[in-house]
């Protein structure tokens, strides 16, 4: 059963606060409103599914939450900090230290080794190579991928690629993992294993998990489900543990 939502456990300080966020593209007759005034809080340790059909605005919302894009208007706070005040190096540092990313398309460098792929976020963070290697190997060991450290990413199966991506997401000890359709390119059995890994990290390590999906079965495993339709938050459902 899903864990009880952090908001029901009396935690009243959100790790992310979204207030009246709008996002528009284009101008005049070509303007498209992807988000139309979305507001909600996310609490540390929660698992949250953002659910919606293609074009609903769910991916736009994820990019804004992950500081990969900025809202046209409205406000996003990260641990009480107005993210619109973060620029340049400070923005990159906040994103790199706080978030880990697991994408459907993997985004691994095909001809680089698994170890090199996993070390990349730490290279961006300026961590010395010896520590990068040590932490990357530890993450691969946790994901049962240490024996593939020297293999090229192009030689991995889909499940192995996603395990490598999760290892890469973990190496900077993120507070939050964003998983965008994390099982979309996997068969049912492999997808179930990847789901278990993500929810174990949420439950055992206390990492906040934000899953973007149209898969109702995956969403049902989360503490909360935010339903997005035509750029609006139409439902915020909290699952209470039995």
TrEMBL record:
<dbReference type="GO" id="GO:0005524">
    <property type="term" value="F:ATP binding"/>
</dbReference>
<dbReference type="InterPro" id="IPR015854">
    <property type="entry name" value="ABC_transpr_LolD-like"/>
</dbReference>
<dbReference type="GO" id="GO:0016887">
    <property type="term" value="F:ATP hydrolysis activity"/>
</dbReference>
<dbReference type="InterPro" id="IPR003593">
    <property type="entry name" value="AAA+_ATPase"/>
</dbReference>
<keyword id="KW-0813">Transport</keyword>
<dbReference type="Pfam" id="PF00005">
    <property type="entry name" value="ABC_tran"/>
</dbReference>
<dbReference type="InterPro" id="IPR017911">
    <property type="entry name" value="MacB-like_ATP-bd"/>
</dbReference>
<keyword id="KW-0067">ATP-binding</keyword>
<feature type="domain" description="ABC transporter">
    <location>
        <begin position="16"/>
        <end position="242"/>
    </location>
</feature>
<keyword id="KW-0547">Nucleotide-binding</keyword>
<dbReference type="GO" id="GO:0022857">
    <property type="term" value="F:transmembrane transporter activity"/>
</dbReference>
<dbReference type="InterPro" id="IPR003439">
    <property type="entry name" value="ABC_transporter-like_ATP-bd"/>
</dbReference>
<protein>
    <submittedName>
        <fullName>Putative ABC transport system ATP-binding protein</fullName>
    </submittedName>
</protein>
<dbReference type="GO" id="GO:0098796">
    <property type="term" value="C:membrane protein complex"/>
</dbReference>
<dbReference type="InterPro" id="IPR027417">
    <property type="entry name" value="P-loop_NTPase"/>
</dbReference>
<dbReference type="GO" id="GO:0005886">
    <property type="term" value="C:plasma membrane"/>
</dbReference>
